[in-house]
Please model this.
Amino acid sequence: MESETITVTTYANYADKLDIFFQHYPNHRIYIPPIPPILNRIPKKNRICRFCGKDATQTKFKHEPHIIPRLLGHNYGVSDFECDTCNLHFGTLENHFADYLGLSRTVTAVGRNKVPKFTSPLDSLIAAKTSSGANKDFITISDESGDNFYFDQEKSSWQIIYKKNPHTPLNVYKCLLKIALSVLPGYELKNYQAVREFILKGSHTEYFKPFAKVVRMTTEFSTELPYCIIFEKQNLKDQVPMHMMYLAFENVSYQICIPFHKLDTEINFSGIVDLVYAPPLIFTDDKKPAEFHCDMLDLSSSEQLKGQQGFISFRADSKLFTNAYDTKTKQFVDKPFVPNQITKVFLSKHHGPIDFNDLSV
Ligand SMILES: [Zn+2]
Model:
């Protein structure tokens, strides 16, 4: 597996926060998926699954398991240490992750070649890339009922409030831990027996639930490729977990701790564990100040959530909404902008005009 030594830093206005984080976690390794795909792979007959421990005589290695799931962005980073049985299991966890992300997966992929389609329950909201016609490569968000679109005139904020598909948050957390175990060096797996049993068999669930928290940071900038950084503490006596994982995709990053490392014997995991988190990370020296949005996600529920609300907001100046276009007469009409009558929204990274003659999805 490719692992690179690259210096990470943060925006100028968060340098202090990063210094504190580095005091606890001075070591790190970065995993960036390769471009193009790696050719010299381990022969299938010599592979051993790092999750279940089986070799090629006990299980099969026909699949191409991704280290960072493709649902977080197209990439060529596949592993030689995940058997087909484990891969099928993790695939079901990834479906929960996709449903958890919901519409945001489609919206953040604007301008990309591959854009996942999103359909909310009962088809009340559909988002997809236009594959043909004059408005090719736009992302269209359709809501014939108009019930999911809101425009907050005061805040100049345009919002989509919609229902996500059913999913179990704890499975999303398992999926994140699985990515962490995939990026760690192979010799660490023996130190994370409890994590392996939790993500494969659902063992020790009550012990893991308190740690199923994710710090999510949203920045204005997107990463082309998803990537992952594992931070490691140096002082075994330090009262923080051995490893933290920082996972970045599109304009979002997730941070979790990886609990129950075998050598974290100084930590009382059943008590309150103080966690330290990094600010948004960048690889460039151009450390202009920047703002980001940060929130803590609770993924501890092992219940399947139905009808959970998803929310996306855009800044949009109401002065931009000047003309109404009548799709029947195919003409601009002199009508006031009525925010609650929006039924379709087009998103594009290009600045070109939209072709009003072709407004189909
Ligand atoms: Zn396996």
In short: DSSP finds six helices and 13 strands in the chain. The chain has a mean pLDDT of 89. Helices lie at 15-24, 84-101, 103-107, 169-183, 193-201, 205-208. Residues 49, 51-52, 54, 59, 83, 85-86 surround zinc ion (CB under 6 Å).
